[in-house]
Design goal:
Length: about 280
């Protein structure tokens, strides 16, 4: 992987990580269209550390309150009913599905799930699910209403994002809308819930950079991660403002169009579903 390729993929990661359009799908598609090798699951996981650092910066005051309350709740009973402590415990609960499934399905994540036909299918199917959730969701609940079953519901939705095309933010936000949470609260919990999973996955995959058939090397991967951080912060700020007054319909339309175009490119023989352009 060259420096220009890393720059482009870092921009793609930062632009798409927090939008409900699937950053892993876009990394996969852009690389394929450009004739580059699949950047690989390790590159994706490590560059996501950059975007999650943007989450830490944007939500720093809230994350600080959650960590403080959660820590005190371990030792003091009077802190265990604090809303921030409770949210901290529910983030842990919601992280369990993706940890378990991520370990069990590691081989598929690195290979079969990256088939472009699967990516096209999930872009379309989960786009329609997002549209349905956005239309029927009651949007009355806030994070103070979060329960253990709801936390697990968010968690299983996040675990589906192990498949490129689902979208971590899109899947978890759809689950939140279907459970009655507002767009902003569902998105916020989605971002907070991603922190343990993404940092864990990124650190776990660090040793794979430049090894085991991965095309990405350390220098370009660091560049992409830094670019993803800067761009990702801007996107978070914009999205949190946007969804307070507007729906997810434009993102749904984009997902449907992209899925259909991707199917056309694959079945038209332009792209190899398992790699990049045919003949590359």
């Amino acid at each position: 992987m060259g420096w220009f390729e890393a720059l482009v993929l870092g921009l793609v990661q930062g632009l798409t990580e927090f939008l409900p359009v699937s950053s892993s799908a876009h990394l996969r598609i852009v690389a394929a269209l450009a004739g580059w090798d699949d950047p690989g699951a390790a590159f994706t996981a490590v560059t996501q550390i950059g975007t999650e650092l943007a989450v830490v910066l944007y939500f720093a005051p809230k994350i600080g309150r959650i960590l403080r309350a959660w820590f005190f709740s371990i030792f003091r009973k009077d802190w265990r009913h604090d809303p921030d402590a409770r949210l901290g415990w529910l983030i842990i609960v919601g992280s369990l599905p993706i940890i378990v499934l991520g370990l069990l399905l590691q081989d598929q994540i690195d290979s079969a799930f990256r088939d472009l036909r699967i990516t096209a299918t999930t872009l379309i199917v989960f786009g329609l699910i997002l549209l349905f959730a956005d239309r029927v969701g009651k949007q009355r609940r806030g994070l103070d209403d979060l329960t253990v079953p709801h936390g697990l519901g968010f968690g299983f939705a996040q675990a589906l994002a192990l498949i490129p095309g689902v979208s971590r933010s899109g899947g978890t936000t759809s689950a939140g809308l279907l459970m009655g949470y507002t767009r902003a609260e569902a998105a916020e919990y989605s971002f907070l819930l991603a922190l343990p999973a993404v940092f864990g996955s990124g650190l776990y995959k660090l040793t794979d950079i430049g090894k085991n058939g991965e095309t990405a090397q350390w220098g370009p991967t660091i560049l992409a991660t830094l670019v993803a951080f800067g761009v990702g912060y801007v996107v978070i700020a914009w999205l949190m403002s946007y969804i307070k007054t507007r729906s997810f319909v434009p993102f749904v339309v984009y997902r449907l169009v992209l899925g259909v175009v991707l199917f056309g490119l694959v079945f038209g023989g332009v792209l190899d579903p398992g790699a990049g352009p045919v003949g590359s």
